[in-house]
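Hi team,

As requested, here is the filled-out complex form for the tryptophan run. I kept the field names the same as last time so the parser does not choke. Let me know if anything looks off before we queue the next batch.

— J.
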Amino acid sequence: MTKGRILTGDRPTGPLHLGHYIGSLANRVKLQSECETFIIIADVQALTTNFEHPEKLAGDVRQVAIDNLAVGLDPERATIFVQSMVPQIAEMTVIYSMLVTVNVLRHNPTIKTEAKQYGYQDMTYGFLGYPVSQAADITFCKANLVPVGADQVPHLELTRKLVRRFNEMYKPVLVEPEALVGKIGRLVGTDGNAKMSKSLGNCIYLSDSAQEVSHKISMAVTDPARMRRGDLGHPNVCAVFAYHKAFNSSFVPELRKECETAGIGCVDCKKRLAAVLNDLLEPMRERRAKYEANPGLVEEILRAGTARAIEEGRRTIAEVREAMHLDYF
Ligand code: TRP
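And here is what came back:
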């Protein structure tokens, strides 16, 4: 009946944006009818960078839960849960930490990029090791498919290595998962920066109003060489065109031609994009309003999802302990 089991999720460090949507959330929604779907709200992973303000997590956990529900994840089908409340994930993290060297973690390209982005000269043990904890997130429920953006692929490779090591050394009880990278693995920011990212302030959030979306698009960076309406455009260097590719793909050939021949100006091209984005986001706004009006319902969904995740965790950790002969009594 099902194609298997999905696990994916987000750090609750702020609202989710279009980059999250095109990299992972769109696939979550699409696949939830074919696969058992687990969505982790990775609050421990958020602490690896935001440990000074743990009090912000409660609000951010709620917000990320609502973002997932707003895009169309159905709480009847998908299990949405909180990482820190599933103790088996922490147990598996400790076990995996024996199977990876510090050097391997130091060379992880995503860790390197993020450390630079956060300005870390040195890293905490928790930050350096979050890919190990992420391997536990994925494998505690034996997921075989992980919808993620391109930046997460190194973490999936580590997960696969850890699973193979465990299975070969002890007993083959764990499932080696595969990454499923979204249609656009990495979305540019509205400032033309290579990545849409909260810390760069170049995001369009799933929770933005129609006016905010139109305004952000009107300010977005286009082809810098196209100064006047009559200048020919170069769509490949334009952030707005990148968004058309991601969210308006059937009109891309036409828009490319119109841009390159100066048939369409940037203002009109942006208006068309804003309309497409707002059509995409409008049903999300409606679902969001429903959940925001009912905080008790969101809490109930998280409570039930977490209980379900703990059940999976208990089953897996029993097998892990048995495989390692740690089932003493
Ligand atoms: N590292 C992911 C991100 O920053 C979030 C995450 C945590 C995750 N645990 C996961 C993604 C497990 C996929 C699977 O977006």
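Two things worth flagging: The chain is about 55% helix and 10% strand. Residues 7-11, 40, 42, 45, 134, 137-138, 146, 148, 152 surround tryptophan (CB under 6 Å).

Thanks,
J.
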